[in-house]
Q: What sequence folds into this?
């Protein structure tokens, strides 16, 4: 079903914009500036659509086409008296309000946070696509919280709606919601989708939903999917999902498939996907393999993925391995990569970062450690950086590390601006 805003967009671009442009041209003629009036009318019609980003390119194309059509056909008719200029002006003036009705209708299409809180469950499920596509964090959180609260009723209703719908745009969002509420009925249905779905984009969304749950029950279905499907993009996404699940069995499957790969490029891209998943899932089971990959002198792209995974896993063993990487790395850009994966919510890394800041022999490492500390969600972390800066500034001039002082001042300023 086409949403109200989309219906208005089609109506506006096909029927309204040409009249609006014609009116602008005719009005401009009276002031000796026909083309300026025409262009102004077109812009007035397209600006609201630009902000909505719905059918905008189609609208620009129609606008330009109708500018030409008005110049070649409509204006000569008006000049010969066959098309009353006053009629063009009047209709065009009335239709100037349509883009703004369109703007308001888009807002009405997407339920507000307050509406979601009170909406009946069936209606709430019908609005899943609109809310998730709108990408409003507050509305999305409210939607998922409601579905989670009533997940026993919600899961079968979402599945029922999924079976009735044919458009992939809604199916993908329904699968996303099923993964988020993590009800056994919904998880079983996701496994069924992995087994039976043929459409690429729906399968891709199902894999993402499985990864989001982190449920070990998806390890075997994902492995079976890769066995019967040779699409590289789906395989990469499955590797990432297995990494995110991160159980010993998932890691074993990943390692086995990588070991049997024959094409270097394919193996590298799949390994990178697995590294991303292992980092996102903070998989301790995958840590030995990540370290093994790093010790094998991998290509730079794979090296980056593995180093980021170490920081994201963030356990003492992972941080020890990351320190070894830092000690062997002299390229400042690559030093920065080592801190990309660090989770700002993981307080366990604060002592490690503080030690780097105080005692490492590289200013590049110290600076990046300071930056990471300032990004932590902890007042203690930022206080460590500021205390060290003060101590460094209080040293006699000949003992100060001015480069470090400059770096710390820069990162502190940047964190304050952010």
A:
């Amino acid at each position: 079903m086409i949403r109200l805003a989309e219906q208005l967009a089609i109506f506006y671009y096909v029927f309204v914009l040409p009249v609006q442009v014609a009116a602008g041209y005719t009005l401009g003629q009276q002031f000796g500036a026909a083309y300026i009036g025409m262009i102004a009318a077109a812009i007035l019609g397209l600006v609201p659509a630009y902000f909505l980003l719905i059918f905008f390119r189609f609208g620009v194309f129609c606008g330009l086409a109708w500018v030409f059509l008005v110049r070649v056909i409509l204006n000569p008719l008006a000049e010969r008296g066959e098309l009353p200029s006053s009629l063009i002006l009047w209709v065009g003036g009335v239709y100037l309000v349509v883009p703004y009705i369109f703007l308001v209708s888009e807002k009405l299409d997407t339920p507000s946070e307050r509406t979601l809180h009170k909406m009946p469950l069936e209606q709430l499920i019908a609005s899943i696509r609109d809310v998730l596509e709108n990408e409003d964090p507050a509305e999305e959180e409210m939607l998922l919280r409601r579905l989670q609260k009533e997940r026993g009723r919600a899961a079968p209703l979402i599945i029922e709606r999924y079976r009735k719908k044919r458009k992939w745009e809604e199916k993908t969002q329904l699968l996303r919601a099923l993964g988020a509420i993590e009800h056994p009925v919904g998880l079983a249905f996701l496994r069924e989708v992995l087994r039976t779905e043929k459409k690429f984009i729906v399968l891709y969304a199902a894999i993402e939903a499985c990864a989001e749950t982190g449920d070990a029950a998806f390890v075997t279905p994902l492995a079976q999917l890769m066995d019967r499907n040779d699409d590289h993009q789906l395989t990469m996404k499955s590797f990432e999902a297995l990494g995110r699940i991160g159980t010993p069995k998932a890691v074993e499957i990943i390692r086995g498939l990588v070991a049997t790969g024959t094409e270097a490029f394919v193996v590298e891209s799949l390994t990178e996907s697995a590294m991303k998943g292992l980092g996102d899932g903070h998989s301790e089971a995958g840590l030995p393999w990540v370290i093994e990959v790093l010790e094998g002198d991998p290509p730079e792209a794979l090296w980056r993925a593995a180093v980021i995974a170490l920081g994201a896993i963030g356990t003492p063993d992972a941080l020890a391995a990351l320190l070894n990487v830092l000690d062997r790395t002299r390229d400042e850009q690559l030093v920065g990569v080592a801190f990309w994966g660090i989770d700002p919510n993981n307080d366990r890394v604060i002592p490690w970062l503080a030690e780097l800041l105080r005692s490492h022999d590289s200013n590049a490492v110290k600076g990046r450690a300071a930056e990471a500390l300032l990004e932590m969600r902890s007042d203690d972390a930022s206080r460590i950086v500021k205390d060290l800066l003060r101590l460094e500034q209080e040293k006699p001039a000949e003992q100060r590390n001015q480069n470090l002082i400059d770096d710390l001042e820069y990162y502190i300023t940047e964190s304050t601006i952010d």
Observations:
- The chain is about 80% helix and 0% strand.
